[in-house]
Each structure stands twice: as C-alpha cells, then as structure tokens.
Amino acid sequence: MNSLLLFLFSLQKVDGEQVFLDYNKPWIFLKNYFSSPSEFLFYLKGLEESDFINFKPQPQIHDSDYSGYFQIIHKGLNQVVELSKVEINSKTCFMAFDNRTKPYRKAIKNAISKTGYKVIIIDEEHINSDKTIPDAILSGIKQSKFCVADFTLHRNGVYFESGYALGLGKSVIYTCHKDDFSDSHFDIKQLQHIIYNTPEDLERMLVDKIEAWIK
C-alpha cells in the first residue's frame, strides 16, 4: 500500500487537496501493479482504514464506473515523508530490467560489484511475507544510492521504476541494446544512454559511467 500512497501523493498539487481519480483507466491501475479497478479500490479502502486518506467514491451508474475523490490527511502525509527520505550514504544500487534480458544481467551485476556497490534485484531478494512485490520494489529503490535502468525490450515496469527513482532525487543510469534503442519512448530518448552491443561492452561502459558519475 505504500506504493499506492506515493502514487496518490504524486497526483496532488498542494497538501490537503481533494483530487478526482478515475481508476478505471488501465494506465492507472496497471501502472500500480493491480490487475483490475476493483483490486485498486480494495487497496484504496485499505489506505482509508489506515487513516492515511479520506476517500469518497462516486456513484456507480454502470458496473465499469470506478472513480472518486481522495484526500491525503496528516497521518498519510507523515508516512509519505518517511517513505521519501533519501539514504545519502547508501552503498546499494537498484536494477530495473526485463527478465528476458538475463544474458546482460550478469554484466550489469559485475559492473556494479566492481565499483564497490551491492546490487538489489527484487527477484533475487528475500521479501518479508507482510510486503507486496510493489512495496519491495519501491523500498529497494528508496534505500539505493542510484539506479541502473535497462530499457531493452521496453518493459513498462522499467519506465515506472526509473521514474520513481528520479522523483526521489536518485541518479539513474540508462542503458539499452542498440537494436532496441530506436523504439524507446520519446520521453527517455533525449536522455544520455549507454548503448551496447555485447555484454562485454555493457560491463566496460557501465564501470566507466559509475566511476565518473556516481563515486
């Protein structure tokens, strides 16, 4: 639920604002790793029960109508502050990538290790039973000093995770295989990328980038 609270916080312009939310839109519930609007609503009500938000759903005229007004209240704002604290002295790095690019995972891990950092990869971490995978992802990003985001195959989660890291003030290193870069979204195409052809290229250039930009 922490990830959902941070998402809601990003939608408000000023503290205490009542914000209209149409969560029937796929970009809203899928972006937050929910399978449907009804699942989104379930966790929204959980935030309300935790006294993090006030929520007033709009009447449902059709079964597909899912919308309402939310307001983040004081306890919720305090939680946002705690979740958004930056760990300045962190020696960890978060990796965002598509699982289908596993041949390049080792190259990224090697580069991060060679420069003295510990890599956080969610599917290799032991996640506490009381944590959801989205919460574990956001927690991993939050405790990291920087993020390496590989946009090969353009997984939506990589866009979200790198954007979240950027929003927290983290440094983000963008990488992409040369065969996929032309298909990148225009929002990230203008950013400096490490464009690689082989795992060896990726490892070498990433070591140089971390040593020059992060250390």
TrEMBL record:
Its domain of life?
Answer: Bacteria
Protein name from the UniProt record: Nucleoside 2-deoxyribosyltransferase
